[in-house]
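in:
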């Protein structure tokens, strides 16, 4: 049976569950068969009794192992975007609608997490997957399994959930100054500044006046920045792919990513341009996320 792909909660019914003996289970069966052989050869009723008792335990374990997963619900959670090179975390929600405790439920993606579910309880786990390149990342099938109670059998279900997250470019490790002018005539937008108009922040440099320090940002542990004022005609900051240095597309996107994060950290207003896309000057969480998404999907 093929794995099922779904956005909705998946209930682990009989059609979705598979069960098979483990190596420990095979060893247990071989030991029981050996006891039966000894009992037959020596006609020993006590050994017969022990062998049949072990066989009954083996049979009852089959039922309990199946019930360890039967009826559970599994659903994909909300995933957070990451930068290339980081581990992407995929959230999976499990529910136990029955009055039975599920003491050992293993969920496997790239790694395995084991949790216990209380009667009619719910739990969430986060499984990580390493990332290497930008763009959409879709996780492989998720395996939910259990060997409860004695490890003689393994019951499992392979599911393809809606586990997708966006991977942004890795910010460049090279520190380059932010562009100081617009990069194309179509991007040039000049603002008239009064003598006391605030027009931006920059990283604090030794010698800057203490009156210019952005103390609110410093109090929030966001870094030490200097406020700038002026009455000259100033050009808006534009982060433009066409004017970004780099030997390859990925290097240029990485540099744009770093500039974007630095501009946000400094509370600057900036425009953003990629071939076929232009986002007007703005700042804040939603603007930066739109820019990062554009970088990831370029």
């Amino acid at each position: 049976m093929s794995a099922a792909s779904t956005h909705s909660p998946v209930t682990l019914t009989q059609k979705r569950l598979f069960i098979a003996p483990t190596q420990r289970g095979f060893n247990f069966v071989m030991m029981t068969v050996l006891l039966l052989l000894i009992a037959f050869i020596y006609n020993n009723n006590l050994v017969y009794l022990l062998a049949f008792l072990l066989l009954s335990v083996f049979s009852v374990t089959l039922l309990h192992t199946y019930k360890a997963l039967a009826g559970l619900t599994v659903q994909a959670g909300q995933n957070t975007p990451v930068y290339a090179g980081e581990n992407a975390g995929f959230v999976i929600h499990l529910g136990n609608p029955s009055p039975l405790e599920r003491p050992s439920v293993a969920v496997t993606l790239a790694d395995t997490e084991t949790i216990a579910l209380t009667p009619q309880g719910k739990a969430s786990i986060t499984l990580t997957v390493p990332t290497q390149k930008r763009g959409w990342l879709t996780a492989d099938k998720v395996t939910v399994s259990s060997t409860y109670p004695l490890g003689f059998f393994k019951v499992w279900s392979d599911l393809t959930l809606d586990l997708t997250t966006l991977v942004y470019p890795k910010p460049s490790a090279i520190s380059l100054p932010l562009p100081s002018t617009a990069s194309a005539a179509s991007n040039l937008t000049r603002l008239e500044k009064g003598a006391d108009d605030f027009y931006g922040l920059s990283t604090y440099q030794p010698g800057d006046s203490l009156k210019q320090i952005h103390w609110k940002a410093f109090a929030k542990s966001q870094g030490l920045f200097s406020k700038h004022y002026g009455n000259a005609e100033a050009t808006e900051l534009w982060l433009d792919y066409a004017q970004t240095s780099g030997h390859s597309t990925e290097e240029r996107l990485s540099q744009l990513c770093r500039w974007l994060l630095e501009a946000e950290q400094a509370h600057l207003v900036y425009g953003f341009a990629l071939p076929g896309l232009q986002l007007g000057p703005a700042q804040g969480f939603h603007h930066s996320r739109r820019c990062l998404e554009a970088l990831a999907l370029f």
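note: DSSP finds five helices and 20 strands in the chain.
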